[in-house]
Write a structure and sequence with these properties.
about 500 residues, single chain, 8-stranded mixed sheet, globular
Length: about 500
């Protein structure tokens, strides 16, 4: 890892003269197939277009994939708040204990003491470290990092200088300016009063506001870190009138058509931000990290079957790949062979890697790009993916742990992936199954549970899973008799 840009000593910091801007473009509920950019590779290793890729229209994502490196297998948690917390602190949900989406008003059920209130002032966060290193830190959109009346409710308590639209809510009351984005009802989006009563769609309003803040950071001559965290594609599936005609003859149901307009509106925001960075002369200095926060919730197909993420199984909230896999692209906003910054942190344009990575890796990767180090006392579960960005291959030990001790679409489970193998332990035996085991290299769509025939591998992987949970200090739900739901093997 590169040397730290800010060295703590005598209460002061020394700042490097030039640092890359970083834009984290996070899309709510965006699964692997909610795009016209293919993310699945065929048997020849090349990206293969799927039927859903022909339904959606995302030229901005196609543009970004051409200029950057695309991961065909990138993992998030299957619900939003745990993922959003991990992005900010680099720790797995088993360690930071934000294991469920955060109800804004009252604590959701789950293990006693699960971290419902989320991060708090003083916690180590990516924006906080970058701020100390001289960055202007800007948050825009959906936060959902803590409930109302908690310190985590406001991103400015967690290292951001600016907060536009972020609060405890996980979905907007309305996407329509004419409806004041839900003000006066449930789930109102704050800070956008200037657009109330107008025809400005929520996705557009957020984009206009974040570009203004980028201009301010440039005027202050500061590098900037922006988390552009769209409320789209979360329900309610309000059709964006700018794009509705593109889907009226698709043959899909009305809610799916509305969902597609949210996708296209999100993609326009991406294009508008890329164009704005180029207009103000910052595109060559800006790294863009694009991803979704959990699997797709598109209104297509059943929850645990092949539908919204076809041909991948499952959707948001499930333990299958459709609930955990998200699109991920990392790119310079405008590649330039002559850029000194890009030579220091190279990203291979148009590259695809099939090695898997996860949300835990964003924190260390962004810090490496900015030449900033986390405190040695702060445990980081991820690893920098810089070598993948430069060469498409890395030497990382590839594992991913997702712990969900709650009731939801899939309930009370832990997922552990090691290499080609993925094991799921169901504490409450949903669907009559206790353990599921898949070889994703041979069975990428999770059609065959191999737990009954690969008994030795099941035993070994459950031991690995338990060791990972114990090391992280994971919390467990309890059975009716009060005993904790731990792995039995």
């Amino acid at each position: 890892m590169a040397l730290a840009a800010g060295i703590m000593g005598a209460g002061s910091f020394v700042f490097a003269a030039e640092k890359p801007n970083i834009v984290l473009f996070l899309v709510d509920d965006m699964g692997l197939m909610d795009t016209s950019q293919p993310f699945l590779a065929g048997k020849d290793g090349r990206l293969a277009k799927q039927p859903l890729n022909d339904f959606y229209r995302t030229p901005g994502m196609v543009r970004l994939a051409k200029t950057g490196t695309l991961f065909s297998c990138f993992y998030a948690n299957s619900v939003c708040s745990p993922t959003r917390t991990t992005i900010l602190n680099g720790q797995s949900s088993a360690r930071h204990h934000v294991t469920q989406w955060i109800n804004p008003y009252k604590k959701n059920s789950g293990p006693k003491g699960w971290n419902w209130k989320g991060l708090k002032p003083g916690d180590v966060t990516l924006p906080g470290l970058l701020k100390e290193a001289g960055y202007k830190t800007i948050f825009c959109g959906k936060a959902h990092l803590g409930p109302f009346k908690s310190e985590g409710v406001d991103p400015t308590n967690l290292g951001f200088d600016v907060n536009i639209g972020g609060s405890a809510i996980g979905q907007p009351g309305s996407y329509y300016g004419e409806k004041n984005y839900g003000k006066g009802g449930s789930h109102p989006v704050p800070h956008l009063e200037k657009y109330h009563g107008t025809k400005t769609f929520l996705t557009e309003a957020l984009t206009l506001e974040v570009n203004k803040e980028i201009d301010k950071a440039k005027a202050e001559k500061k590098p900037f870190f922006v988390e552009m965290s769209h409320y789209a594609l979360h329900a309610p599936f309000h059709s964006d009138p700018r794009f509705a005609d593109n889907y009226k003859d698709s043959g899909k149901n009305a809610r799916a058509q509305a969902y597609a307009t949210l996708v296209e509106g999100m993609d326009k925001s991406l294009r508008d931000m890329l164009d704005h960075l180029e207009k103000i002369g910052e595109a060559e200095n800006t790294i863009v990290i694009f991803l979704g926060d959990n699997g797709s919730d598109a209104p297509l197909g059943r929850t645990h079957s092949v539908g919204s993420s076809a041909p991948i199984r499952g959707k948001k909230g499930t333990h299958y790949e459709g609930g955990m896999r998200v699109p991920f692209i990392m790119s310079w906003a405008k590649p330039s062979a002559g850029s000194a910054l890009q030579k220091k942190f190279p990203i291979n344009p148009g590259a695809v890697t099939d090695d898997f990575a996860s949300i835990c890796d964003i924190f260390p990767t962004a810090l490496e790009a900015a030449e900033v180090e986390a405190p040695k006392s702060h445990i980081v579960d991820g690893q920098s993916i810089a070598s993948y960005l430069e060469n498409q291959k890395g030497e990382n030990k590839q594992t991913f742990l997702m712990h969900f001790p709650h009731s939801h679409r899939s309930s009370y489970f832990t997922v552990y992936r090691d290499g080609d193998w993925k094991i799921v332990y169901h504490y409450a035996k949903p669907q009559g199954k206790r353990v599921e085991l898949f070889n994703l290299a041979k069975d990428p769509y999770e059609a065959k549970n191999m737990a009954a025939t690969e008994t030795q591998r099941v035993s070994e992987m459950l031991k690995q899973m338990q060791a990972a949970l114990d090391e992280a200090g994971a919390q467990y739900a309890v059975h009716k008799d009060g005993k904790p739901m731990r792995i039995e093997h």
